[in-house]
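Database export, one record per block. Field names are fixed; values are copied verbatim from the stored entry.
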Amino acid sequence: MLNWGLYRQSSELGTSNISTPTAPDMNAPAIPAPAPPKKAKLALALGGGAARGWAHIGVLRALDEEGIEIGMVAGTSIGALVGGCYLAGKLDELEGFARSLTMRRIASLLDLTIGGSGLFGGMRLTKRMQEHLEGLNVEDLDRPFVAVAAEVNTGHEVWIANGSLITALRASYALPGIFEPIRSNQRTLVDGALVNPVPVSVCRAYEQPLVVAVNLNYDLYGRSAVVRHNATLSPSEVHRREEAPYAKLGMTGVMVQAFNIIQDRIARARLAGDPPDLSLQPRLGDIGLSEFHRAGEAIERGYEEAKLRLPELKRMQEIFAGPL
């Protein structure tokens, strides 16, 4: 309510305490828009899985499409191969190579060795990598990268974060009995899946705030660890030699399958003790370890899994954003 006496006094003095609206100052500085929320970068732990590893390509494609930043990559076996090529800017070339594979072409890339430490020397594959990665060192990459290998003589887990990128990748995927071990700096190195199949612990050691694992073998085996068994032979097994030949894995198949079981059990134990913040698990159980010619299917499944989990990823990026 207006104070009439005060109004009369101010009027007599030629002034009024009633303000009138003024036009906005067009030259006033604009109020800045609120800054977008901070988002943590992802540290990717790319697991091993032989031919299933092409799924990593699909995961990376999906993350790039959404503009999700990746702060570092730790890779084991084919996870190291895909991660290293990605950080080197050679993912297009690797995907083109993977999609071009046929069973005949795969056979042409494998150089059988006699009397060596593995069935294949791997030099033909190395020549293909040299076309794109020759002379590139791990420390030349624009983000931290670690390839995990295992040392045969001591059983040590070896983290390769310096030196030749090609040597680091070869050591990490040197599957025992299949590829010859890699001799590097007085160490004999083989596939890192023997010691750390999904290298979440590497990302933790680098103090990454948000660690996302890509586990390629999650749906490969049943959840039961122990099965009660009766060793009595069934009639069909007693007379098996008289029946039609049954499917056999062969020496290589048995070796690879045994290695896969070891990798699965080690991965479960290590991830239980040091779990990632989020785990991507593409459904790849029907893709065999040696079916590298099914790259298109594996890539698509990795892409679909990453797309499906994007809401969780983005939410966790905001949650984990901070001074780290």
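Remark 1: Residues 7 and 13 are 10 Å apart (CA to CA).
Remark 2: DSSP finds twelve helices and ten strands in the chain.
End of record.
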